[in-house]
Amino acid sequence: MEYIKVTKENIENEHICCAISNNKDIQVASKKEWLNERFDEGLVFIKSTERGKCFIEYIPAENAWNPIDADGYMYIDCLWVSGKFKGHGYSNDLLDECIDDSKNKGKKGLCILSSAKKKPFLADPHYLKYKGFQVCDEADNGIQLWYLPFEKNVSKPQFKECAKKPYIKKQGYVLYYTSQCPFNAKYVPIVEKTAEENGIKFEAIHIKSKDEAQEAPTPITTYALFFNGKYITNEQMNDKRFLKLISR
Questions:
Q1: How far apart are the C-alpha atoms of 194 and 241, rounded to whole Å?
Q2: What distance in Å separates the CA atoms of residue 83 and residue 103, rounded to the nearest whole number?
Q3: What confidence tens digit (pLDDT) does each residue in 69-94 have?
Q4: Is-above-0.90 flag for pTM?
Q5: For a Cys-Cys bond, which of 69, 70, 72, 120 suits 61, CB 3.0-4.6 Å?
Q6: What Rg value do the Cα atoms of the chain yield, rounded?
Q7: Which of 61, 18, 219 is nearest to 155 (CA)?
Q8: Which helix (H) or strand (E) holds 78?
């Protein structure tokens, strides 16, 4: 497998490993804009030269869009290998590249979000354990922070206090999200419209800065849905899935 590093210089000509290739599509445009703004903060995006879901995205933890204290670590936003790419060792390739790059940059280690059992859009805990990662913190909603230290006796990353007990005071459905996920640009407005048409109290809070993300009341900022103050899920909703959720 051959890989390519996406940068400011080539991002307009590269697909970003999802099912959409049209740069004018709002889903692609919003994600690429977000990436472009992060490159100067140290974000690295490495992907397969073949079109598909085979990539890793990571950034110095000080600049991560998550409420974590992990100075000196590299935070992995996403390690995603699926479809025809699974089972060929490509996850190992990408993770090894991240490890080598992070060591060369003098980092203490890596950290990433997961959970005790596999959840949508989070790293597989079985794979992380296999690769030597350990749980270093856990929020009340079961979202875990895992880390891979490069040396012994280094400080462990942890969640900030605002994220350890994911709860908000607002009633109804409240969604926190960022532009990290390209599909949010399409589906968040769809859910907003569905909620309005069905008389459902719904508020979408678009996190637009690192500072906002690092103070969020949830470990996951890409997509975190609350109901009457309680965290529900990080699984992305479309109109049908949202209506099915509220029917429960």
A1: 11
A2: 30
A3: 999 999 999 999 988 888 999 999 99
A4: yes
A5: 70
A6: 18
A7: 61
A8: strand 73-81
